[in-house]
Design goal:
With about 325 residues, the protein is mainly β. It has one domain: 7 Propeller (Methylamine Dehydrogenase, Chain H), CATH 2.130.10.10. The protein is built from no helices and 28 strands. The strands form seven sheets. The protein has a four-stranded antiparallel sheet, with no helix packed on it.
């Protein structure tokens, strides 16, 4: 575990390189991770931390997110030098083409919907289609590397606060988004129209993994893991993984449909412990286990990203003394 000696929490993490998992895995390539933080006092600003050494300890370069002094950096996505960062509190995003050396802000004066319906989470397969979900069921897309944005959903499918959005890697026309009070909406035409799935499991949904266009997993704030193999029409509750902590939130699930490896970040509801699980059977029920280094009693985790079948980085922190980054390799 690496501790970032700043009084922050790391809210999200992404892999800038390599381009993907599965057939792209190369043990000779050091993955590049980027993670983003809450505000740090003196000077008050959020930060991005970049690790070009495969997530190894003590190798995070700190990049201040200039001008963000009122809201945390909540979500991040990127490809090599290009990175987009979302701040719900700032009702703004930043994009950079050089890993933060130059930062361009797009805020509510440009995308006027953001003032009343703050952006929350982001996903992309490449720079030509980026999607953001936010408050009150709103979604936006960019087709020109974050330069311009178009509102594609105005709370018609749901007015729930959308907290995760993900594009199906096997069919980018299919996109799912989940809401804070259990709504799950879906588009089958690249985000042009949206509709709720027939049944929505769980309570407050927090985590989403779109394994493929028909098979998805979601996690909630009561330790529930639910899966659907028919595009969200029906759902099955998974059995609890081993060493399940009594009060817990399923914070994040990610994985690769090619190699069948998935990762799940679980936070104790009180915020004092975490477990990161691994699954080598495509996220199947009853097949989650705790890899070496996957449990900790002092630092909660909020997000996890994998660079290949055998390497993932989970991030979190206590927000008062240090952020944490847990390398699982």
């Amino acid at each position: 575990m690496a501790l970032i000696a700043d009084p922050v929490t790391l809210n999200d993490v992404t892999v800038l390189l390599p381009a993907g998992c599965g057939s792209f895995c190369d043990p000779q390539v050091k993955p590049v991770f980027a993670t983003v933080s809450t505000l740090e006092a003196g000077p008050v600003t959020a930060h991005m931390y970049i690790n070009t050494e495969g997530g190894e300890l003590e190798e995070f370069d700190k990049v201040p997110l200039t001008l963000w002094a009122t809201g945390a950096a909540n979500a991040v996505i990127g490809f090599d030098q290009f990175i987009v960062i979302v701040s719900t509190g700032e009702t703004a995003i930043k994009y950079t083409d050089d890993r933060g050396t130059t930062q361009i802000e797009i805020d509510q004066t440009v995308v006027t919907d953001w003032a009343a319906h703050a952006p929350k989470h982001i996903d992309a397969i490449d720079m030509t289609y980026i999607i953001i979900c936010g408050a009150d069921g709103y979604l936006w897309k960019s087709e020109d590397a974050a330069r311009t944005w178009e509102t594609i959903e105005t709370g018609i499918a749901t007015t729930d606060a959308l907290v995760r959005v993900e594009i199906a890697r096997d069919n980018p026309q299919v996109i799912y988004s989940i809401g804070a009070t259990s709504a799950i909406i879906k588009s089958t035409n690249g985000g042009e129209t949206w509709a709720q799935t027939l049944t929505n499991p769980g309570t407050a949904l927090l985590a989403l993994w779109v394994k493929d266009q028909n098979h998805i997993l979601v996690g909630d704030d009561a330790g529930g893991i639910y899966e659907s193999s028919d595009g969200g029409a029906t759902w099955t509750a998974q059995v609890a993984p081993p060493d399940w902590i009594a009060a817990h939130d399923i914070m994040d699930i990610c994985g690769c449909s090619e190699c069948g490896v998935a990762w799940m970040a679980v936070k104790e509801a009180a915020g004092s412990a975490h477990i990161v699980y691994r699954n080598v059977d495509g996220g199947a029920s009853g097949r989650w286990y705790i890899p070496t280094g996957g449990d900790d009693t002092t630092h909660p985790v909020l997000a996890v990203a994998h660079s290949c079948a055998n390497r993932a980085l989970a991030v979190g922190g206590n927000g008062t003394t240090d952020g944490c980054a847990i390398l699982l390799a």
